[in-house]
Amino acid sequence: MNLAQLELKGYKSFHPHGQKIDFGPITILLGANGSGKSNLVSFFKMLNYITTGGLQTFIGMQGTSNSLLYYGPKRTDKIDWVLKFTQGQGQNLSTTSYEGRLTYGMPDRLFFSGEKVSFSKSDKLKPQEYYLDIGGSESALSKDERKTSKVLFSALASIRAYQFHDTSDTAKIKANGYVDDARYLRSDAGNLAAFLRRMKSDTDSIKYYERIIRHIRKVMPQFEDFDLEPISLNQQYVRLNWVDKTRDYLFGPHQISDGSLRFMALTALLLKPPEKFPGVIVLDEPELGLHPLAIAELAGMIRTASKHSQVIIATQSTRLVDEFDVDNLVIVEVESDESGPLSQFKSQFKRLDADILAGWLARYSLAELWEKNVFGGQP
């Protein structure tokens, strides 16, 4: 199933009146710092935790539930969302929707006060709708035995948010990792070494590993290959070691630039075997620290990945934007909230009209139009 639309209300910078966002095979969220791009990514991360029964853990990581509500519980006491998935086309088009509501309660908690599942087909007038049990601190969707609930839960669990920004000395990507932690690439690429090792040792996936190596070499010419043998003192662990073209010196993950390390993680995520892809990949500012040549490679990898998974990118990189079409773009802006104090603001997400911009695009690139503030998205 394809993620077609999200309507979100009351979450962080999303106004309680709601904001609808449509998604395609590739969706590029373009906006300035603080416009709300990362808040949308954060919502998808929250979904990850909801599908694993970890909503309260996610809230705890945010500090308080107040931080998830639009200007706090005095202004907004609930978060609402509707996720729509589609499958097929024409008379065979079906739509499955998941509506959720989290309500603020004392002492400083969010609980499920509403969950609704609906299913409709284009050739049937009346949709199938039902509500789930409410009042719990976690979603009831995973425990519901109805077929539509199971299909919907699988679709939700297949939306994965990734962020590879942490390349500090204590980052998990640089640490020793358990060798069998290789089923899928984690959201922070903390198991990158084990993930690559499994791919390299498997006869069915080694061609994808070799493709990853070729793309890394384009950006890091001195790179030859990874050395992913288990650590000699503990065979249950592996480290992201690598060798250069001389092959006479073994380098560790602390001897890679931050940009190169992030690019390695991105390459593994976007060029892995097709069966390893989730339904939706959500990436927050993947261009961070990358050379312009690496950004061009990244765009190509995104297009490759979109054959197997929908891709949602939050960015403010004009170099990356110019690699895509106007139909891929969603502009993110901050507007004054006229229903509240003048000091309050809300995020606005809008699609561009290719026909209206046709004359401009004949003379300027998308990046130039953004910098000229022709279609907004500026600070």
Summarize the helices and strands and which ones pair or pack:
Elements: E1 2-9, E2 19-22, E3 26-31, H1 37-51, H2 55-62, E4 78-87, E5 94-105, E6 109-121, E7 128-131, H3 147-157, E8 159-162, E9 177-178, H4 192-201, H5 206-219, E10 223-227, E11 237-238, E12 241-244, E13 250-251, H6 258-270, E14 280-284, H7 292-305, E15 310-315, H8 318-321, E16 329-336, E17 345-351, H9 354-361, H10 366-371
Parallel strand pairs: 3-15, 3-16, 8-14, 14-15
Antiparallel strand pairs: 1-2, 1-4, 4-5, 5-6, 6-7, 9-11, 10-12, 12-13, 16-17
Describe this structure as you would to a colleague.
Helix 1 (37-51) runs antiparallel to helix 2 (55-62) and helix 4 packs across helix 5 (206-219). Strands 2-1-4-5-6-7 form a six-stranded antiparallel sheet, covered by helices on one side. A six-stranded mixed sheet has the order 8-14-15-3-16-17, sandwiched between helices. The two termini are 36 Å apart. The protein has a domain at 1-158 and 325-379: Rossmann fold. 39% of the residues are buried. The mean pLDDT is 93. It has helices at residues 37-51, 55-62, 147-157, 192-201, 206-219, 258-270, 292-305, 318-321, 354-361, 366-371, and strands at residues 2-9, 19-22, 26-31, 78-87, 94-105, 109-121, 128-131, 159-162, 177-178, 223-227, 237-238, 241-244, 250-251, 280-284, 310-315, 329-336, 345-351. A hairpin with a 3-residue loop joins strand 5 (94-105) and strand 6. The chain is α+β, with helices and mostly antiparallel strands and 379 residues long. The radius of gyration is 22 Å and the shape is globular.
